[in-house]
Design a protein that fits this description.
The complex is a heterodimer. Chain A is α/β, with parallel strands linked by helices. Chain A has a domain of about 260 residues: Alpha-Beta Barrel (TIM Barrel), CATH 3.20.20.210. Chain A contains 19 helices and nine strands. In chain A, the strands form two sheets. In chain A, strands 4-5-6-7-8-9 form a six-stranded parallel beta sheet, sandwiched between helices. In chain A, β7, α16 and β8 form a beta-alpha-beta unit. The radius of gyration of chain A is 22 Å and the shape is globular. By secondary structure, chain B is α/β, with parallel strands linked by helices. Chain B folds into two domains: about 80 residues, Methionine synthase domain (Methyltransferase, Methionine Synthase (B12-binding Domains), Chain A, domain 1, Orthogonal Bundle), CATH 1.10.1240; about 120 residues, Rossmann fold, CATH 3.40.50. Chain B contains nine helices and five strands, in the order ααααβαβαβαβαβα. A five-stranded parallel beta sheet of chain B has the order 2-1-3-4-5, with helices on both faces. In chain B, β4, α8 and β5 form a beta-alpha-beta unit. In chain B, α1 packs antiparallel against α2, α2 runs parallel beside α4 and α3 packs antiparallel against α4. The chains are: A alpha/beta, B alpha/beta. At the A-B interface, β2, β3, α12 and α17 of A face α4 and α8 of B.
């Protein structure tokens, strides 16, 4: 794996070039290599705000949609790597997208079962077998845990948070912190606790889930290899999150965190500051491991309606901005998936170095997004999923053209659906892609 | 300014410790418990107004709701003592549910809280609620409005099915159906056959209030 330092010092362009060259991909033939380079080139030009020589990149941002389109259930996709891999391979070729889904985002059901995973419900485990997984938000971190989190996030994360979000790992909470291992006389309590049967069970469960996931990715990886070998890049190399969303989604929960803004604002800010380097490392690590600079950052709880602009400026934006700048410094391209509406926040998003990041919008007014961010950052999205799921071909064609007229400008735009796509219809999705390629020419 | 008005102000300003201290102090100094309760109601109404104006957002909404909850624990024994009832006329009856298949509840809970603050009698059925239950509970509750929530696209069809069931049972005309969630738009509103769609709580409240004031 490349060392993070190797591509620091404003090496985003170099990383994009390396990715777009297809270095390390065992292409099926020269045509596939050229196609891969062409597709990556469209995205690279969009990021760098160049006038694209050809057309807008078309990247629908599918997750479970291919599963449903090929007649499989969410459960089948999550329990059989061959089914999942085949679905994504077929989808990518049949729909001929410019960058395709990250199949591992679907995850492996048996590994989740081993962990007795509580953070999500998944097909056959709390949601119907035909559906996709869904998040279970709870107050996994208590208000009184802030000091522990702030002083040592990794210790808190591993022993406390994992013990609350994975039933099989609950005994980890009984293990003392690792620091006694600095000296022989103090190492004893730590090792002795590791030997306790419940703790052994917990570690065994963790090892088993790891083995299951490893076997799964080895099977799935062959399909991902084929997808890339036939000329299709993946739409992200890594993923990370805004520190506020880490706390709000996975640790405190929305309601407790929103009250924390009044009850312990300084703790919230401190916790988020602690998360900044961790989130940079998480995103950059994935990007480097996969040799793909695009780092996906889904934004959740800073949207219009969640908080005031003052609160956004104080609590949400500074740590997100720091994560984005840190990723750029590591040569990565932060790709924020801006869920909900950001009509009140566009000026903040504009405050980034020119041509270094991507904002994919959900319900934001795309004309405003173009006006405020045009010439500054690459934008994308804005197409309503409602039309893909319930509309007809004509409606989709018209809306795609309208969106391109509004948002494509003279470059710096990626055509995509405004939300992570879990379902679609074949005719409307194909119409979207076809119209994008035909009408999105510059 | 009267003491109870100062209390209202403290709540509206999100001064939690001050508000709770004042609440205890007022009750101990024999201020009528009903007046203390009214101070909270006035505060919640003001918070709601500020929410509608885009001055306050979710942090203030959940903070004030939590302050009121804590205060009620303190006020309740005094209310019982004075024998004062808290019966008030409700604005209207709304049944709220996240539809079958979807387990998201943040948006639903916000709208539920806001509807209650706005004087609605709310029956909140929770998440992943089967169509049969929505229909039967709506009937039992004599709901004037059915509010269907859903974050994911998978919510579209269950919402549509609720409206179809209402039509089949001949009760569609006697109830308004409003759908809410991140991916709701005019297209989905027509697809579902709902009376309206909203993507934020404020719009939902004002619409439901206007329906009730126009007597549905």
């Amino acid at each position: 794996m490349t060392d993070i330092k190797d591509i620091s010092n404003d090496k985003q362009g170099a990383f994009l070039d390396r990715w777009a060259s297809g270095e390390g991909v065992a292409f099926q033939n020269d045509g596939a290599k050229k196609a891969y380079q062409y597709r990556c080139g469209l995205i690279k030009d969009a990021v760098q705000l160049k006038k694209t020589p050809d057309r807008v990149p078309v990247v629908p941002l599918e997750i479970f949609a291919p599963v449903m389109l090929y007649g499989y259930s969410g459960k089948e996709a999550m329990y059989d790597a061959n089914i999942l891999g085949k679905i994504y391979l077929d989808f990518t070729r049949d729909y001929d997208v410019d960058a395709t889904a990250i199949a591992p985002m679907v995850m492996y059901g048996p590994a989740l079962e081993t962990l007795d995973y509580q953070l999500y419900k998944w097909p056959g485990h709390g949601v119907k077998e035909k559906l996709s997984y869904q998040f279970v938000e709870k107050e996994y971190m208590k208000a009184e845990d802030y000091d522990h989190f702030i002083s040592d996030p990794t210790d808190y994360w591993f022993r406390i948070w994992l013990s609350r979000t994975c039933g099989a790992l609950a005994p980890l909470a009984q293990v003392p912190p690792i620091y006694g291992t600095m000296e022989l006389p103090m190492a004893g309590p730590w090792l002795c606790t590791l030997g306790a049967p419940p703790v052994q069970d917990a570690f065994n469960a963790l090892l088993k889930a790891g083995r299951q996931s490893f076997e799964w990715i080895n099977t799935l990886g062959q399909y991902i290899g084929q997808i890339m070998a036939s000329g299709y890049p993946l739409y992200a190399g890594g993923a990370t999150k805004a520190p506020f969303d880490v706390l709000g989604d996975s640790f405190r929960g929305t309601t407790p965190l929103m009250m924390d803004l009044y009850r312990r604002p300084e703790k919230v800010i401190e916790a988020m500051e602690r998360l900044v380097p961790l989130m940079i490392g998480t995103g950059a690590g994935g990007a480097l491991a996969n040799n793909n600079p695009l780092v996906f950052i889904p934004l959740h709880k800073g949207a219009d309606g969640f908080m005031s602009n003052d609160q956004f400026e104080k609590f949400y934006w500074p740590s997100l901005k720091a994560v984005m700048l840190g990723l750029i410094d590591h040569g990565c391209v932060p790709c924020c998936f801006v869920e909900g509406g950001y009509n009140q926040r566009l000026e903040y998003l504009a405050d980034m170095p020119k041509g270094k990041c991507i904002y994919i919008f959900d319900r934001t007014d795309m004309a405003q997004a173009r006006k405020i961010l045009g010439g500054k950052s690459c934008i994308g999205g804005g197409f309503p999923i409602s039309l893909i799921v319930t509309g007809d071909v004509r409606q989709v064609e018209d809306e795609t053209k309208k969106l391109l007229d509004t948002a494509a400008g003279d470059g710096g735009y990626i055509l995509s659906i405004g939300c992570a796509m879990d379902e679609a219809k074949e005719d409307t999705l194909k119409a979207f892609i076809r119209t994008g390629k035909q009408y999105g020419k510059y | 300014m009267k003491d109870t008005q100062l209390l209202t102000q403290a709540i509206v300003d999100m001064e939690e410790d001050k508000a709770l201290a004042m609440t205890r102090q007022l009750l101990e100094s024999k201020t009528n418990a009903m007046d203390v309760f009214t101070a909270y109601q006035d505060a919640m109404a003001e918070v709601g107004r500020r929410f509608e104006k885009g001055i306050y957002f979710i942090p203030e909404l959940v903070m004030s709701g939590d302050m009121m909850k804590t205060a009620m624990e303190i006020i309740k024994p005094y209310l019982d003592e004075s024998g004062a009832g808290t019966v008030e006329k409700k604005t209207g009856r709304i049944l709220i549910a996240t539809v079958e298949g979807d387990i998201h509840d943040i948006g639903k809970n916000i709208i539920s809280t806001l509807m209650t603050l706005n004087g609605f009698e709310v029956r909140d059925l929770g998440v992943d609620v089967p169509i049969d239950r929505i229909i039967s509970e709506a009937k039992a509750f004599n709901a004037q409005i059915i509010g269907l929530s859903g974050l994911l696209t998978l919510a579209f069809d269950p919402m549509k099915n609720v409206v179809e069931r209402l039509e089949q049972e001949g009760s569609r005309d006697s109830v308004k159906v409003i759908i809410g969630g991140g991916q709701m738009d005019d297209q989905i509103c027509r697809y579902v056959g709902a009376d309206a769609f909203v993507t934020d709580a404020v719009a939902g409240i004002s619409l439901c209030k206007s329906w009730i004031s126009g007597s549905i």
